Amino acid sequence: MQPTVTVLILRFVRLTLDPSKREDFLTLFDGSSASIRAFDGCLELLLLQDTRYPNIFTTLSKWSSEDALNEYRSSPLFIDTWARTKPMFASPAIAFSYAVVRGPL
User: What's the DSSP call for residue 94?
Assistant: First the structure.
């Protein structure tokens, strides 16, 4: 039997918001970010803002494993937060997950 390998996962989600919803989004993020950071397996959560377009944000989260990320994505916390975020979009979100294969852990 092979040992289970834990692979660090980085999740990027680019959010293009309706410009009139920018402040609502920031309020929502501020209200939910502590709970997301406290979710089992979440190691870090950052909110990035595009330097040219202030209504475009990217979340960068670091997860202890793909399983941890998937557990979060099926949790009531994610479902509720996503349901409240989605109506603020000017275009669909774009999400990517990456496994860390080299670099400092």
Answer: E
Burial (CB count within 10 angstroms: exposed 0-12, middle 13-18, buried 19+), residue 76: exposed
Residues pairing with 14 in the sheet: 58, 94
Residue with tokens 């400092």: 104
Please give the Cα distance from 34 to 53 (Å, whole number): 26
Does the structural domain 9-99 have CATH classification 3.40.640.10?
no
Which amino acid does the sequence have at 49?
Q
pLDDT in tens, 12-66: 999 999 999 999 999 999 999 999 999 999 999 999 999 999 999 999 999 999 9
The CA distances from residue 63 to 11, 17, 38, 93, in Å, are 8, 25, 11, 20
